[in-house]
Amino acid sequence: MAVWLTEDSKVIVQGMTGSEGTKHTARMLRAGTNVVGGVNARKAGQTVRSEGRDLPVFGSVAEAMAQTGADVSVAFVPPRFSKDAVIEAIDAEIGLCIVITEGIPVHDSTVVWAHAVAKGNKTRIIGPNCPGVASPGKSNAGIIPADITSPGRIGLVSKSGTLTYQMMYELRDIGFSTCIGIGGDPVIGTTHIDALEAFQADPETDAIVMIGEIGGDAEERAAAYIEANVTKPVVGYVAGFTAPEGKTMGHAGAIVSGSSGTAEAKKEALEKVGVRVGKTPSETARLMREIMSR
Predict the structure, then answer these.
(1) Which of 6, 21, 241, 288 could tie 76 with a disulfide, CB 3.0–4.6 Å?
(2) Which residues are registered as beta bridge partners of 151?
(3) What are φ and ψ of residue 109, in 5° steps?
(4) CATH classification number, 148-292, choose in 1.50.10.10, 3.40.1010.20, 3.40.50.261, 3.90.20.10
């Protein structure tokens, strides 16, 4: 069993005919993802040839779902059009919408999130500014490399794309059930807590790696959730131990103010509830390796 993305998932690509959409559609197909079509209102009715398959282009998400049974959308739509694209996916009630696009205005993200709530949260949004979701050996939706790890029983949730890849590679011999990149913007759809809940409920996930970063209080809230609800072992890493105070680092959400949001404060909160936290990604991988070898 994988979390949210399985071998049965039928994936459409919003923005499939653009340069990024074209490139990553081909890459997802090579990874075995069941891509069933794309969405571009201006090119509806056309067909795109990719990796030996003819993929239809639909005028809307609702049309694509009706024609193909799609239940996952991956959005590679430019920032200024992303709000409307994701709202369209929400209105169509697709089960999962993974928003890869970087640079979406935070105000647009808040509008999208409010719209999703008003519609009853029928669409799970992952991102924006995220690498996507990979269930190794089953499906790969987004930009996560498909050949850096293997299927296994570790669940991974991460704010950082590159650290997602590094952790997948370092633990490639043990393998992962699902790897979820949630993105590091101030307003995102799916949180650490959402992923922790899913991994806790998944019978084929035995342990969890959680990667956070400086800024905000998401990791502290995740620590409280772990203490109350998670019985599986969790190891963590918080990017930004060397970051200076009061400076925005990397992701738009990584803002540190005084001791609030520092890597050390997050590490303490996680360790207080029994999460082992590495000082480096490699140390975090070693901690998980120790757990999985017991």
Answers:
(1) 21
(2) 176
(3) -65, -35
(4) 3.40.50.261
Ranges of CATH 3.40.50.720 domains, the chain: 11-126
Phi–psi pair at 34, nearest 5 degrees:
-85, 75
Inform me whether the pLDDT recorded for 258 exceeds 80.
no
- Other C-beta atoms lying within 10 Å of the C-beta of residue 122: 12
Mention the CATH class of domain 11-126: alpha beta
Note if the pTM is more than 0.85: yes
Question: Average pLDDT for residues 50-79, to the nearest whole number?
Answer: 98
HSE-up of 188 (CA within 13 Å, CB side)?
A: 33
Helix, coil or strand: residue 38: strand
Which of the residues are catalytic?
Answer: 251
How many angstroms separate the CA atoms of 38 and 57, rounded?
5
pLDDT tens per residue, range 156-187: 999 999 999 999 999 999 999 999 999 999 99
CA 188 to chain centre: 10
What average pLDDT does the segment 228-237 reach? 98
pLDDT digits (tens, 9 = 90+) for 197-217: 999 999 999 999 999 998 889
Binding annotation: 17-20, 43, 100-102, 165
What is the four-CA torsion angle of 137, 143, 144, 145, rounded to 10 degrees? 80
Half-sphere exposure of 30 (CA within 13 A, CB side): 13
